[in-house]
Amino acid sequence: MAFHPAASVLVKDVLIYNGLGQPESELQDILVLDGLISAIGTGLTVPEGITVIEGKGAAAIPGLFDMLASCGEPGHEHLDTFSSLTNAALAGGFTGIAIAPNAGAAADSQDYVHFVQHKGSQYGCDLFPYAAISQQQKGQKLADLIDLHQAGAIGYYDGSAPIHNTDLMVKALQYAQHTGLMVINRPEDHWLAQFGQMHEGFTSTLLGLKAIPSLAEVMMVKRDLDLLRHVGGRLHLSCLSTAEAVDLVRAGKAEELAVSASVSVAQLLFTDQDLGDLNSNLKAEPPFRSEADKTALLAGLKDGTIDVVVTNHTPLDIESKRLEFDMASPGMIMLQTALPALLTAYPDLNLEFWIPKLGHNARALLLLAQPKISVGEVAQFIVIDPDQTFEFSAKVNKSKSANTPLFNKKLKGRILASAYHKISIY
Fold this sequence. Notes:
Elements: E1 4-6, E2 9-16, E3 28-33, E4 36-41, E5 51-62, E6 64-69, H1 82-91, E7 94-99, H2 110-120, E8 126-129, H3 145-151, E9 156-157, H4 166-176, E10 183-185, H5 190-193, E11 198-199, H6 202-207, E12 211-212, H7 215-231, E13 235-237, H8 243-254, E14 259-264, H9 265-269, H10 291-303, E15 308-310, H11 318-321, H12 338-345, H13 351-365, E16 380-392, E17 409-420, E18 422-425
Parallel strand pairs: 2-5, 6-7, 7-8, 9-10, 10-13, 11-12, 13-14, 14-15
Antiparallel strand pairs: 1-18, 2-3, 3-4, 5-16, 16-17, 17-18
């Protein structure tokens, strides 16, 4: 999977997907010159010196967008820098990423927002900063949400730390109404989840591990929906993991509450039964739940209750993972493998199903422009052969971290190229 950046390229014989419907009816060529789509048609002439990508019936789709990825920079550059993060993203077909606050720097200042924006201008992948809901992400005092919006933040989020302070959540929903941005919360009751290592169920009992009940998520979802009913605003519930939470969001949408939700890729791939050998690379936050929960999450995606699939890309060093399961940190890298892993796990669901969940819907919720594959537009698309398999390994991994259970796995859906101003050919 070599990397060859270029500003001009001719992509031949691809099915073009635009919007949310079926692909266009015939194979076409896409000519990109200096980062702009110059021509679309059949049998286009190859300009001298232009790189040619033979699509052979592959799909050209608008660049994917990840609504939740973490980066080590600033402060923990050994985990992932913005350079390695964007390399992994492009190799996975993502041309835009919403950056979650990390422990290295408080996301409660305009300086932080400007820092992420500046980094984003250096790479062929958009980086959009979330701003913290609370000062220093401590969940106590409200950050200056208006100023952070004016600086360019695209939403309010305290990262993996749930907002337990009810008064803070109320104020965040109220202030955010002046900016139109979403308040994002990962629903989990700290006290019910405290010291928990995995989902509460038969497997946790069998393994003798302290567990996290589904109720820890459900109680927080109920609370946040009640607060939304009370004060209004826009609420996004991040990384749902339980069937009852899906039912609650479905009911909230039926009431026409301004609520949206996401699920992580890993929650759609694994259940608590996969933890039998205590592989620390399968320790996640929230924990993998039961098969019934996974089925409910997929059903929520199919009926629109869950709007977005996120990678929840969480780079960690080897010292955080090569430990006993109960001592290891939760999280895994997923940017490079998200779409192929889903195509592999769900062969009955095609690109048309996953395209909106991994791109269009997230941009719509975050009020961002949608890329188009049309003449005159900036080249912001990917070329993927959904039927071609490849092996994901440490050798081709673009992240600086290696915390993944997918190494040496055969995955279906090979990214041939990612285009955004420049074209990365793999």
